[in-house]
Design brief:
By secondary structure, the chain is α/β, with parallel strands linked by helices. It has a single domain, classed as P-loop containing nucleotide triphosphate hydrolases (Rossmann fold, 3-Layer(aba) Sandwich). The chain contains six helices and eleven strands. β6, α4 and β7 form a beta-alpha-beta unit. The longest helix is centred in the first third of the chain and has 17 residues.
């Protein structure tokens, strides 16, 4: 402080710098990626987490892939145990950052949930990073790590690279070991090892296996 009792310009500059730094550190939002093989309960975990936010009076947005509709064509996230909730759809052309930014004009958003996150594009994963870093909203993604051919999905590949927090949701193979791979099966039980990467299906189309039995094509 100067002799006149006023704060010097240098001291004021230090105060301003500290304020800016503290505001930046106040954003504790993160990008989370929960990944697994098929039928591990990812969607159930998502719906439970969303319920926890809602129960506390917080606003959330949920997205799921455009092909993932219920039998009536409704835009819903459905779990294997019967839980369901309405959701926004995304496809390869959806700009999730701009969509979230627009929705923020109507109400504060406390969290964003992404189901079927393996179907995100590289660009969309970067959009999620911007939502976390620029808008200060946590984003929680759930998805498969690899497809039935053992190839990584683009969305999962970039989430594994860019997410702040990674967690594997575990399920088991028929042998009792942890399942890490997915196989696609026909109605007659035959394993399919070629085809389109994207084909929505649940228990009737996919089976989770450990790596050993995936390589052996052993369904148990």
């Amino acid at each position: 402080m100067s002799k006149s009792g006023t704060i010097s310009e240098q001291a004021l500059a230090c105060v301003n710098a500290t304020t800016i730094r503290d505001r930046g550190s106040a954003n504790m939002s993160k990008l989370y990626f929960y990944y697994s093989a098929m039928n591990a309960g990812k969607t159930t975990k998502l719906l439970q987490s969303n319920f926890n936010y809602k129960e506390r009076g917080m606003n959330t947005i949920m997205y799921t892939f455009c092909m993932d509709k219920d039998d009536n064509g409704n835009h819903k996230i459905n779990s294997r145990i019967g839980l369901a909730s309405d959701a926004n759809l995304f496809d390869v052309n959806t700009n999730i950052f701009l969509d979230a930014q627009q929705k923020m004009k109507d109400a504060k958003i406390n969290c964003i949930f992404i189901d079927e996150a393996q179907f995100l594009t590289k660009e969309q994963v970067y959009q999620l990073c911007r939502i976390v870093d620029e808008l200060g909203i946590p984003v929680i993604c759930y998805g498969l790590r690899s497809d039935f051919m053992g190839e990584p999905f683009d969305g999962s590949k970039y989430l594994l690279t860019l997410a702040d927090e990674l967690e594997e949701v575990k399920t088991i193979c028929h042998c009792g070991k942890k399942a890490t791979m997915n196989v696609r099966i026909l109605p007659n039980g035959k394993i399919v090892d070629r085809g389109q990467q994207i084909e929505i299906g649940k228990n009737d189309k996919y089976v989770s296996l450990c790596r050993k039995h995936y390589m052996e094509k052993n369904l148990g």
